[in-house]
Design goal:
By secondary structure, this protein is of the alpha+beta class. It contains 10 helices and 7 strands. Helix 4 packs antiparallel against helix 10.
Length: 330
């Protein structure tokens, strides 16, 4: 009983604790965004947007890497398409010229034709660089009209343009100089008027003329195997062609045909090196691998994918480190 009375006295002496109202708890906590001053709201909004902007470079570079994946797949399909076209049997040039089918649908198809090269109307397109034995040398593509052989039913019936291959600058200069000297040589007199009394001299001159006729080179037909191609699409950095100055920087089939006096829809082919003559190394034709090549190969697109994805990962990690809250030092 004594212990119970002692406990009762102690309860009466203890000061009752004050209960904190719920409204006071809310007032002592952090203020809500809507109750903040307008200046503080603007600072918080700017901070949020600036943090989001840090991730934009990573998203853009990731998108570029993904785009290169699709580009690589398209390039693989294009190379397979060209390879399958080159594997077909060659067509006859007369069949293509006689048909009304567009040559665009026949691009990268082999074609076989027979005719004579009109060397005087050769056009040089360039400069084009080529690596030979590890040494890069500038040169030109020589494009020459192939004309029909008179009286030969197996030859082409309409002229075509043939890209005969690559030649160095020195070869082009030599060929142009020989064409300039040819009219001068042909203008020199080959015979003189003789007196009727000098019959012995006339007899000797007739023999001399016969020898000159025998020395005239005969027209030798050539058989060409090439691939049907179209006009090139130059970049913005390539100058425009100037036919009046005989300056050609890219292949424009209608313009080349007009410069050679041929119809606008003249067939244009690139000769391939099926039969290489070691005695005449120039012009150098393209092989199958060079024909199907493009300015950007699938391996190049794969390198771009790795580059863009690596850059995306790097800038994203930097953005995360920037927005990550820093621990206060105690």
């Amino acid at each position: 009983m004594a212990a119970a009375s002692i406990c009762r006295n102690l309860r009466q002496r203890v000061i009752p604790s004050k209960r904190i109202p719920h409204s006071s708890l809310i007032s002592t906590s952090a203020p809500a965004f809507s109750t903040l001053p307008l200046r503080d709201q603007e600072e918080i909004s700017r901070s949020t947007w600036s943090k989001l902007f840090l991730f934009i470079p990573g998203a853009i570079t990731f998108g570029l890497g993904s785009w290169q994946i699709f580009r690589r797949q398209d390039k693989i399909k294009l190379l397979d398409y060209r390879q399958s076209r080159l594997a077909n049997e060659p067509l006859k040039a007369n069949e293509i010229v006689a048909s009304t089918q567009s040559t665009d649908s026949l691009e990268f198809r082999k074609v076989q034709c027979k005719g004579v090269f009109d060397e005087k109307k050769s056009i040089y397109v360039g400069p084009r660089s080529r690596s030979i034995s590890g040494v890069t040398e500038n040169g030109y593509y020589v494009i020459t009209p192939l004309i029909p052989v008179p009286g030969d039913p197996e030859s082409i019936q309409s002229p075509i343009l043939v890209n005969r291959g690559w030649v160095p600058r020195s070869w082009r200069d030599k060929a142009l100089n020989s064409l300039e000297d040819e009219p001068q040589n042909s203008s020199t007199p080959t015979s003189t008027e003789e007196s009727p009394t000098t019959s012995w001299w006339r007899f000797g001159s007739v023999k001399r003329k016969d020898l000159e006729v025998e020395r005239v080179p005969s027209v030798i037909p050539v058989e060409v195997i090439g691939v049907i191609r179209g006009s090139e699409k130059p970049s913005n950095f390539v100058p425009s062609n100037d036919p009046n100055a005989a300056q050609w920087f890219y292949v424009d089939v209608p313009a080349l045909a007009d410069a050679c006096g041929l119809p606008e829809r003249t067939l244009y082919i690139e000769e391939i090196n099926e039969h290489v003559n070691p005695r005449s190394p120039y012009p150098i034709q393209k092989d199958h691998n060079m024909l199907i090549q493009t300015s950007r190969m699938p391996q190049d697109h794969l390198n771009y994918v790795l580059t863009w994805y690596t850059l995306s990962a790097a800038v994203t990690i930097m953005a995360i480190q920037r927005v990550k809250p820093r621990r206060s030092r105690r």
